Amino acid sequence: MGRMAGGGWSSLSADLLHEISGRLSSDADHLHIHQVCTHWRASTSSPAAWRPWVVAGCGGSGSRLYPIRDYSLRLPLDGAQRVDVGALPAGLPYCCGASQGWLALVDHYGYPTRLVLWEPLSNTEISLPCLENITLIVLSGDPLTSSSDWVAIAGQVQGPVRQTTVLWRPGDATWTMLNDQETYEIDTVVFHEGKAYYIDIMGTIAICDLNSGTDPKSIQIFLSCLVVPNLCKCDQHHRQRGVHLVSCKGELLVVVLYWGNHPSPAEVYKPVWASNQRLELHERVMNLGDHSLFLGRGDTFALSAKEFPAIKRNCIYYADNPHQKRYWISVFHLDSDVVEKIPYPEELKEDRTNLTTHAWFCPRTPVLKQQ
């Protein structure tokens, strides 16, 4: 390539640099373009808040089964700085899910008259049919980029601790029953190769084929509680802190977290869905490469540290349920088996609202500082 006229790359116009930076999709690209030279730095904007974030709030009715109130988006760092995304939608004080860069919001935690998906960056709202006693909503894709090729799955309370799952597709007038076999509180939901996988707090895994026509049904049920307790080979048995599903680099993974001083506080496995509805966990994943996993309630996902410079590679980020307000996010380092704990924000310790982390939230595009 011949030498550029004038001052080379540093002579690109501010308008052109602004247009180029507007097409960048990763935080890392925005960081790099901002570091080229003084002219580029003056002509472009750096991220205002590095992704991902956490959704924090207070229990809507004193139970994790219901949406949270007083929700906010915060950085997963010491201090938990609040992220300003503009005015929240009026009249929707409860959040019942964070997925694909969208928040699911309702006007009442038990008997809503409005149920809305809201994308903060574009301020786009999508109204869904109302659903009583909703617990969470998870999306299979981004409605802004997936057109009509996405679905929403929701949990609905049935009794004190049980719930069923329902499904909605764009254009549907009502929700469709997905699995009428009641489970306990749904912990995480993953969409992988045309199927929805979800696991409840007791370790029951349901696999639903979303390609089986307009009326998908649960096709298989697996009990991880029959397998996971046998993974610990220590002299002193360690209780599981949680069992989660997540998709990373095209593979479905099972993550087991332990309480106490387990030699490996977090273990990652490739599941085998054997005959007779048996879950087998033989192959352990020791290295995620440049990726890290983000586990919380509802949606789980994997991000690359090369694209998201605020995160560390080969880690598991876990949105904790704060214990006595000591910490609220745990970072499991798979290469060293060290657990890094991000303290509960000091400014919130005296707050009687008991703010807790609810889920991870990754906006669909970088959020840039205003020039």
TrEMBL record:
It comes from the Eukaryota. This is KIB1-4 beta-propeller domain-containing protein. Residues 89-325 form the KIB1-4 beta-propeller domain. PANTHER family: F-BOX DOMAIN CONTAINING PROTEIN, EXPRESSED-RELATED (PTHR36901), OS10G0520400 PROTEIN (PTHR36901:SF2).
